[in-house]
Q: What sequence folds into this?
DNA sequence: TAACTTTGCATCGTGAACGATATAAATCAA
DNA sequence: TTGATTTATATCGTTCACGATGCAAAGTTA
């Protein structure tokens, strides 16, 4: 039995599981809004800056168009965004919030604090989480190459 | 603009992205073996202990049967495992490694070290990764409830 | 032992991820 | 300006995740 092949020694499994469980924690808050977790990420981007080409969204999410295009098509179908053809470069699709997509920001603004309250008084501490965020950032930076 | 709704302030997005990128780092090593990342996790479990009911696998992976059953069916189709009916409790399906699935352990035993070499000399350090693993564990423990 | 509940697993539908491939517009080179 | 290449996005097929539902075996209760 190779120790390095034990499930509990795998960092990847911890990341995979923590990511899934955190997403699950968000789910009850997304359900009344009728959105999913990746759709929420797209909305976060558009709430920061509207009218972006698909390429800006793919690069910020570090996903490819084969994931993002169908995602945006579903969001368009749900009336959250529009996808208009670029005027300067007509290959581009400019993604814009609909009034409904914009208004959803108000309904979503308390979700992060609801989530962080989940581990009020429980482990891990805010300090640990902050340190982990830094480590994740450098890990992402290294792996992005 | 609500600060708490900025993409870069989202822990969830870091976890989600790091998890995806780490899985991507494994992919080249899985490809010659013809397996996927979740299939690798199942193999890790079976290499530790063979002949397990589906429920043991779901609980260790913290996944439900609606994810694991199709996964096991594909692995059976690929000749990595067998799924026999339990003798004591005939509702159970006992998952066992085939010779091929067992032999794959030898081919996989160097994958973890290949992955960890990815950030030799780069950030994050081994200490940071170790600290993060601890934080992830407590986060998983808290969210599991 | 008959009716009820629980347990273990399977099936179905939907929405991601992602490799591979396609297409049209833009850009570059000859 | 024509032909070649690159860029921006889309499509397709496969595998995961996961909510909802189904079903038969096991356990429980009356």
A:
């Amino acid at each position: 039995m190779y120790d390095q092949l034990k499930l509990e020694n795998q960092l990847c499994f911890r990341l995979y599981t923590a990511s899934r469980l955190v997403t699950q924690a968000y789910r009850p808050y997304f359900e009344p809004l009728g959105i999913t977790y990746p759709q929420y990420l797209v909305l976060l981007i558009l709430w920061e800056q509207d009218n972006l080409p698909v390429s800006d969204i793919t690069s910020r999410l570090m996903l490819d168009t084969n994931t993002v295009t169908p995602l945006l098509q579903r969001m368009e179908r749900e009336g959250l965004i529009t996808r208009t053809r670029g005027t300067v470069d007509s290959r581009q699709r400019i993604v814009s919030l609909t009034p409904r997509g914009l208004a959803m920001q108000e309904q979503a603004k308390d979700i992060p604090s609801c989530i962080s309250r989940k581990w009020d008084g429980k482990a891990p501490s805010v300090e640990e989480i902050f340190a982990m965020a830094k480590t994740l950032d450098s890990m992402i930076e290294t792996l992005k190459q």
Remarks:
- The beta strands of chain B are 52-53, 81-85, 93-97.
